[in-house]
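Quick one: structure tokens for this chain, please?
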Amino acid sequence: MMPSGVVSYDAMKRHEAPWSADCQSANTFANFFPKSVEFRAMRIAVSGATGLVGSAFCEFVAQRGHEPVPLVRNPDKEGIYWSIEKEALDVEALADVDAVVHLAGTNIGKKRWTEARKRMIRESRIVGTGLIAKSIAAMKDPPSVFVCASAIGYYGDGGEEWLDEDSEPGEGFMAEVCRQWEAACDPARPVCRVVNTRFAPILSTEGGALARMITPFKLCLGGRLGSGEQFFSWVDLQDVIRAILFIIENDDIEGPVNVVSPDPVRNKKFADVLGDVMNRPSAVPVPEWALKVRLGSEMAEELLLFSQRVRPARLLDAGFEFESPTVEEGLKNAISRE
């Protein structure tokens, strides 16, 4: 449950509190609310706090008067110490938080999928998640909610089918990793609310798929991947961090949640819109064989050629409003932050 007395993000919006970097403390932030409205800051533990999503999320919640507390691997740094290799986590420090957001994991798209790289991808997610979940389960006073990252790779290749949180898992390396990743949360489920956020590829010029696409488009060498007919689900970074806080604040949200925009498009359309936004052509396709030579067949298929037409059913049902609901808006917003 959301801690008693905490004002939700939606309530903040209704009172038109300013989202400025000046709002660095709960006391400062609370001054913008009517006296009848109580605001209490949450302490939110965050793993992967220096990554693309984690760093943006920490800044986002701090500006709203909450206190992000990073999970750190160096015991000399400020935060909550943990070590996957040593299977260690400072449970005493964790006892003082309201929510845990687990985002840490080896980047799936940065290097070719050798067997060693695949093992690193798998273990960084499953072992780390299991460590946090077991630690939460053993706590006398656990946090009210555990939000753990997952991915829409859970669904595999869906073809033309619409996929939502009730869809069956697919086939492939990432589908299996996601199944095990989410299952690793099980020890925590009896003692707190657990949410598995199935992220789509995130639009940001700071990292991820879009950051790698921009260079060829700048050189007028961008275009569709493979046939371009595969559906591509995506989500803007700002909607990701807003969705995480929305999930923390909404007690009714539990289990798997697709964090994707409501506007999946075919890869060809995505390339065309990106070209339009950047004022560049999108006329240089990358053939399937070239992708497989560059990345290996398995990685190319699962990350670039699989068709995933995913719907954020649970977020929409809960009333979440996307700031970038269409691919045009998503790409314009992402590029504008470059």
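Residues 9-201+235-262+309-323 form a domain with the Rossmann fold fold (CATH 3.40.50.720).
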